[in-house]
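Recall the central idea of this unit: under ordinary conditions, the amino acid sequence of a chain determines the structure it adopts. In this exercise we apply that idea directly, starting from the sequence alone.
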Amino acid sequence: MEDISRGVRSFTLGTAVSRVMGLVRESVFAHLFGVGAATDAFNVAFRIPNLLRDLFAETALSDAFVPVLTAEKAKSREAQNRLASNIFNVLFVVTGFLSIAGLLAAPYLVKAIAFGFGRVPGKIDLTAQLTAVLFPFLLFVSLAAWAMSYLNTERSFFVPSVAPAVFNLFSILVPVLTYGWYVARGKEPIFGMAVGVLVGGLMQFLVQTPLLRRKGFRWSPVLSFRDPEFRRVMALFVPVAIGLAGTRINVLVNTILVTPLAEGSVSWLNYAFRVMHLPLGLFGIAVGAVALPSLSKLVVENDTAAIRGTLTDSLKMVLFLTLPTSALIAGLAIPVTRAIYERGRFTTADTLATAGALVLYVAGIPFMSALRNVAAVFYAHKDAKTPMYASFCSIGLNLVLNATLMWVLGYLAFPLSTTLAAILNVGILYALLPRKVGPMELGPLAAYAGKLAAASVAAGGVAWSGNRLIVGQWGTSFLATAGSVTACGLVGLAVFFALSRLLGITETRDYLRRFLRR
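Accordingly, the structure predicted from this sequence is:
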């Protein structure tokens, strides 16, 4: 069994910087623009290239590219760099073409996806204009994801994980600096946010290039669709893109269905989704991203026992990290949302609406995180079709739930269906794992998860109760809210670790020791 804790620690530290900067960006966004037609338009416009980003960038690219690149690295540096250059050049051509095509087709895409915006004069036109501006982001972020995949193969996790912080920095600076310029000229200032996204995407790639060279990458002008290794990547890429993009496809479906609902629904869901992505990126995605190169190496070595051990360790680790975090965020959903967003044009009513969606989103974090790790076993075995079929099932469930529950629960149906779809997806893949790695002992893992869940729910309950008490004494100012979140969160963590010891969860101490050691 490979110990992935050091890589997870590096990835998590880098991601922590990026995710915190992301929340700062969302806080600035909420302060400048609040909730309304312009924010709904921007969120839908940004979601269109974001779906393609998952098809061509972080998820699909890394899980198809890393296993094959790992095998090429075992041959020679020259073979590794030839494949990497070929993938880079193909990405540049394909995503560049799609960016231009998307820019031209923006009005038609928006009319199909955001048809519900037609009730508000000018809303569809604004969404189409923003979509046209944002589409080249696909090219920049795809190249950034390519760089991340190469560096992860080299077991370098910190710089790729912190690179999105640069994206967030420019996404903050540009709209802040240009807001007055747009207003003075009678233009919609949210275009500054779109320009900031473009500049940030380019910088996210450029900040990784110095380390690429230090790690030995040398670019070559090879562009071959017939190269056998390139075809191996593509054979994985298509089903991986469909399988791993299940969550994003669900988000796109949600977008189409939610646009006819009350104005602000798209924005409330987006604000909640951004908060949910902090623990998901810090822990769930981190463990999965670090585990994939290790699992790919073990598959090359044909060490099935070590694969089972590494997978079990990664699942226990991800549950240890995500269950208490999710419970604490759920218990503190209102003060967390208030501290991040409630200022400027973001009202108390927006806080309550966003917090309701956040509770339902964070309930799915442990399952989304486990999905990433279980799916990595299939990708390491170069089997991308099984996760794709499982994703089809989850998308089908998501569609049915959204179409039926939205008339009862309104916008809250969408985070609930996302969580339930993730549960189904990971359940299917876990049931099929024995085909790849032999029998998996579910009993010990289930008992471990049950004990963790009990300690986590108790911690979240204590945090919730403590916050209610503090709000009555301190009020709801920013300092009072931030102090309440900090104090109640720390007390909740103390309760979690105390109960973990009482319940005999020895892994909690072990994981802390592994994360803290040098």
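The radius of gyration is 22 Å.
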